[in-house]
Design brief:
The complex is a heterodimer of chains A (469) and B (55). Chain A is an alpha/beta fold. Chain A has helices at residues 9-17, 23-41, 49-65, 107-114, 157-164, 181-187, 221-231, 266-269, 272-287, 300-325, 332-340, 346-354, 356-364, 392-395, 401-405, 435-449, 454-458, and strands at 44-47, 76-80, 118-123, 170-175, 190-193, 213-218, 256-261, 291-296, 372-376, 410-417, 423-429. Classes of the chains: A alpha/beta (469), B mainly alpha (55). Chain B: Residues 1-21 are annotated as: Disordered.
Chain lengths: 469, 55
Amino acid sequence: MNDVGALTIRELREAISARRLSAVEATRYYLDRIDAKQAALAAYTFVDHESALAQARAVDAKAARGDALGALAGVPLSIKDIIDVEAVPTTACSRSSLGTVPARDAEVVARLRAGDAIVIGKANCHEFAFGGPSFDLPFPPARNPWNPEYFPGGSSSGSGVAIAAGLCLASIGTDTAGSIRSPSAHCGVVGLKPGSGSISRRGVRPLSVTMDYVGPMARNARDCRTVYDCIAQRTGPSRTAGAGGNPAAGDFSGIRLGLATVSWALESRLHPETGAAYDRLGMLVEAGGGTIRQVRLPSLELIHAAASVAMMAEVAANHAGAVRARYGDYGTVFRTRTLAGESIGFDDYLAALSLREELHDAVLGLFDTVGFIALPVSMNPPGKLTAVDRFYFLGEPNINILANFLDLPAITLPCGLSGTGLPIGMQILGPRGSEAALFDIAEGLEQHIAFDLTPCRAARPETARMMPG
Amino acid sequence: MTKPHHPAELPPDTTDEERVELERGRRLLRAMVDLVRQACADARGPSQGGDGRHE
């Protein structure tokens, strides 16, 4: 088979099941691409060739025996390096954890293995999924495959990079304040931040118990859904089923999509190219027969404040003791952010949490008017990969944090390219339990958008210009 | 009544630049805490008063 890299997850599984392609061939294809591109992109912190090929041989043996194959049979995936994989270091991209080797898989990894997936390696990320990009960690920051001088988003940076560059077919990331959605948008892939309880967090390094979610990232919505169905502990019913139309086929006649008029002067901060992509998303839904309505998100500034107070207090509770004990083993961004969170008193932490349900109910009221709400992922297209203001996320609006604090599922998909040739992504939020419906809509939109990763994958690594680290 | 919270002294190897940044981060967080406190006070309303504690 000539072009293994062009196969979707379902096509790859079918080819392996029909023995037109072996899992070993598919795995070697992705390992070869990693060997060629890792130096330029730093997508991985750890790749185990022998283990990956052994897993692939086991899948081929099952296929040869005629045994039933799992939904992800022979599919090479990466795992964000804050998620445990048995006998493989979980470094969290921190010097403090370089020697940490878990004895068992995280629950999400165990489910992937039960689906016969190939765990090919650990994906690069920001230190403990919080704070970056950083240039003082044990691994260099991942670089955007569309242009290595640009930021790939974070904190699941290596996951987005690896998928977009064709160094795996899908990845498992985590999202505390946009950490799946940001790299998905910046790299031009699809990512789902699910609702609580749908994907286990067991075996995942905690950052914020209120805000942490584990979710899938993949090249397109259908691949992402296939991974989600394999790892989810529960999958809700499709809300779009019975609503009329066929959103997964691009018929949105049963869809009412809200475009947000937001407070806090966000419109004036939205980059014109991001605004154009946002408008285009609405037009595509309308062209497919859907209804567009303007909705006003309530109290975005308060949501941002309450979510940030809760998150920062929990980050400090989880990590400040260790940071104080081994200060020099943490990057400067992570340790400074973590110790800042210590200033939040318990009363104020509880006050922030007490606002959560009230704010959720205010947003939930919007779903009486519309089925789903579209939002940008970032206010600006991807920028250059440089050191960041440590506390930019407290001073600037982070629209992604809404879905985490209010426990709403959100899917991100690419909606166009910026003037600098970098992807721009949008997200669609739904009420709790709407993950399947979000996949329906994203699949339908992809038929209209036809986003193409080919230019990014065709870039030859030796032509990528490197910045000094 | 909300009490001020005083975190422990910083580790001795904290750089001057980090101390300045840390103080800036704490100031930004204090502004957010003020918003949260005000929202909670507004939610309780004038008639309930007190410290909002329940048995």
